[in-house]
Amino acid sequence: MKLDATESCKELIELLNSKHGELMFHLSGGCCDGSSPMCYPLGEFKVGGQDVLIGELAGCPFYMGKPQYKLWQHTDLTIDVVNGRGASFSLEIPEGKRFIVRSEICAVEE
User: Fold this and answer.
1) How many degrees, rounded to 5, is the angle at CA 76 between CA 106 and CA 54?
2) Residues paired with residue 103 on neighbouring β-strands, in sequence order
3) Is residue 51 in some structural domain?
4) What would the pLDDT profile of 12-52 be if each residue is shown by its tens digit?
5) Tally of domains in the chain
6) What DSSP string describes 15-64?
7) Can you tell me the distance from the alpha carbon of 35 to that of 79, in angstroms, rounded to the nearest whole number?
8) What InterPro entries does the annotation carry (predicted)?
9) Domain harbouring 44, CATH code
10) Which of 40, 41, 56, 97 is the most buried (most CB within 10 A)?
11) Among 10, 11, 50, 6, which Cα is nearest to 27's?
12) Beta bridge partners of 82
C-alpha cells in the first residue's frame, strides 16, 4: 500500500495545520462519512488495537481501521480534496472542503 496526497490536499493540510496545530488522519471504512478520511488535531482521536498506521500524509500520521486495512492492503491510496461539506467532525468541513480517497489496486507479489 502506498499513501500519497494531491497538491490541493497538501495545501489544505498546511492551512489546517496553521489553524489547529499538528494533525492526524483516520479512515474507518464505516458507512456514510466513515468512508472518508477524517482529520483531527493530533491525539484527539484515540487509536487502538483495531487501527493500523499505514503511513504519513504530508507529515501527519494516517491510520486505518484494521477491517478496512484487510480489504485495502493491496491498494494505493491518493488523498484528494473536493468542494463540499461532509456530515462529519473532520477539521476541513468549515473550510467548505472534504477529503476523499482515490484508489488504485496495486500488483500483488506472489
Assistant:
1) 125
2) 77
3) yes
4) 999 999 999 999 999 986 655 557 899 999 999 999 999 99
5) 1
6) HHHHHHSSEEEEE---SGGGGS-EEEETTTS---TTEEEEEEETTEEEEE
7) 12
8) DUF779
9) 2.60.300
10) 97
11) 50
12) 98
Nearest of 57, 67, 6, 66 to residue 40 by alpha carbon: 57
Range of the domain at 83: 3-103
DSSP letter for each residue of 63-90: EEEHHHHHHHTTEEEEEEEEES--SS--
Domain assignment present for 43: yes
DSSP 110: -
| Phi and psi at residue 94, to the nearest 5° | -65, -15
Rounded CA separation 92/81 (Å): 9
Is residue 23, in this structure, part of any structural domain at all?
yes
β 75-83/23-27 pair status: unpaired
